[in-house]
Amino acid sequence: MAGVDYQVWDWLPVAAKEIEDYLVRLLAEAPIHAHNVTARAKSIRSFDEKCLTKNYTNPQKDVTDTVAVRIITYSVTDQKHAKELIRDRFITKEDRNPGEGREYRQRGYDCHHFIITGERKDADGEWLISGGKLSQYFDDIGGLEIQIRTVAAHAWAEFEHSRRYKGKLYAAISSDGQETIDQLFGAAADARQALDEIFIAIDRLLANPPSGSSQAADTDYPQDAKSEPHVESTEAGDSNSGTLLDSAALSDYLTHRFPNDKAASVKGMEFARELTEACGISSIEDLDQSLSAIQSDQVRLLMDTPTTVTQVRRLDDELLAVFGESYIKKTGSAGSFANRDQQLRWRYDRLRDKVAKYETYRLNGRDCPESLQGQTFTATRAAREVVRIVANTLGTENTLIAGEVGASESELLPSARPAEVEVGGAESVWVATNRNRAASEDIIKVLLRRASESDVDLGVTNRGLDLAQDFAG
User: Fold this and answer.
1) How far is CA 197 from each of CA 33, 80, 156, rounded to the nearest angstrom?
2) CB 205 within 8 A of CB 77
3) What is the Cα–Cα distance from 70 to 237, expressed in whole angstroms?
4) What tens digit of pLDDT does each residue of 13-44 get?
5) Whole-prediction pTM value?
6) Sheet holding 427-432: strands in order across?
7) How many whole angstroms separate alpha carbon 153 and alpha carbon 138?
8) CB-count exposure of residue 401 (10 Å: 0-12, 13-18, 19+)
9) Which of 381, 362, 214, 373 minimizes the C-alpha distance to 293?
10) What is the full DSSP assignment across 320-352?
């Protein structure tokens, strides 16, 4: 066909794969869990047939679906969010739903169509592969089509396309038969719409659980090496000093906390520091104490993404889980992301009232340092502080517990993730931190028993319950 460079079909499949990966990543940032994201390059035969049918004068520019993508979402809520992401990210030549405005008897098709011609200049980041085929596509070809529909709308459209739009049997039957089938497709469209509305209701309940319905506060989640990274320097409560939260220290911390996620770029680390500073966090110890309020693995599970994300994104999710609405207000305009506050709210819908927070342990008693009284701690942190107090009052030898508390790091297995606890007289003991709440409470109870037997006045409560009540008196 005149005016068409058919050599572009050598690389069109690569461009299709690049836009597919791009959109999967874009949805993951929201996060939107799509049922399916699929891109395809139109075949030469299909391209030529369309050009002949439409009588295009400049086929290579006039055909706007030479590469096309279909995003299938689980709900209208996700579909709406995905549409907003496309508008924020790309230059749109077409933005419409062809099903809107059809005659009542032809109702049913519900799929939003975009034709995009490139990235917006104000789009954050550099997501297009430099010198890649997608960039070349935007330069050399007309537009790229993106369709977004729900799973319910997809089921209706696929069946209708097979049985009516391209159905040879439909074309062969009488007009009365066709009219009956049209009415049935209309009924199916009404049922599909009702299904989508039910899915919306379910999404709303999941995003805003009824008061008292959450089981997060009563659930034990196992701690592992990603839950509470060991901080080598002074712990909060020892002094007012701490490890300065600069890019190098923060990068090291994130690497320990999120070892399986992608390391951040220099720009990413600047953004991470902006987030922590907005929360009033100025040291690694402050950050560690804030994040120890939640379980890292639980947040990861709730924010599960189909693609690998950066360590900074994981930090962003965990700070959102800890600080909630106040975090959205403080960091909604952080970075250079378009509509970040809106996307934070979408993400918070996945976390609200679903994340267990364990800052429920309090230390008390005459021999408890005043600086610790009134504070709340996680189980593992409370265990370390009890070890420190018992060591300072009774000596380090009275803190030792086989496999849990040792006089040296080598006495504990590496898998226990030993943390050094400095005590008076330049001594140290090592405490296992890779323990769930129950195991940490066992350490606390053993040491409280030893303390009570030596007339040391020390207590620990969890939600008002005295952990020493089993052997008190």
Assistant:
1) 18, 13, 15
2) no
3) 55
4) 999 999 999 999 999 888 898 999 999 999 99
5) 0.69
6) 405-406, 427-432, 418-423
7) 29
8) middle
9) 381
10) HHHHTHHHHHHHTT-TT-TTHHHHHHHHHTTTT
